[in-house]
Amino acid sequence: MQRMTRERGYRALCGVLGGLLIVTGFAMFGGFFHYHVPGSDSPIPTGPVGHYMMGFAGAALVAWGGCLIGVVRRPRWGRSVGTASAVGLFMAGLMRIVAWIVGDYHVMAGEALRIEAVLFLSAALALIWLRPALPDDIIEPDDVGQAPAP
């Protein structure tokens, strides 16, 4: 019973995170093109290189979100996606904590850095805590790379 509850929680978390990453990624990817429209005014104070990186990051977020959406279908087979996502969210949270401590980013981001750090670190912890058990039908290869004899 508890395994199914954890698995449902893991599915829901991966689905929500995946959806948020896809929406954010498309917004960032679109921001790159919006910057190049003649007469447009960008709400983000950066130049062409910053917008290029924003578009690249947006494409990566769409791919990452798609991987998390795939985990929703078979969560026990997508454990590594959840673990890698937890590492990425931990790194993003750590970066925001450092940016908040340094203080130079407070003018632009305000208190959002602390809020984002809490959200990212909480999501990373939840991905690890809710991670489903390995499927029972996985056959681990031996040291030579062959499946063990029955």
Structure overview:
Helix 3 packs antiparallel against helix 5. This protein has two domains: 73 residues; 54 residues. The two termini are 30 Å apart. By secondary structure, it is mostly helical. The relative contact order is 0.14. The chain is built from five helices and no strands.
User: Pairing-aware structural class of the strands and helices?
Assistant: mainly alpha
**Total number of helices:** 5
Helix share bin: over 70%
Number-wise, the strands total 0
Shape: globular
SS strand fraction: under 5%
Q: What's the pLDDT, averaged over the residues?
A: 86
Give the number of domains: 2
List the uncertain runs: none
Radius of gyration, in Å, reads 19 Å
Major sheet, described briefly? none
- The ordered H/E elements are HHHHH
Question: What is the end-to-end distance?
Answer: 30 Å
Record keyword descriptors for this entry.
150 residues; mainly alpha; 2 domains; 71% helix; globular
SSE topology sketch:
Elements (H helix, E strand, L loop, with lengths): L1 H34 L12 H26 L5 H24 L3 H4 L2 H18 L21
Helix pairs in contact: 1-2, 2-3, 3-5
Concise account of the structure shown:
With 150 residues, this protein is an all-alpha fold. The protein has five helices and no strands.
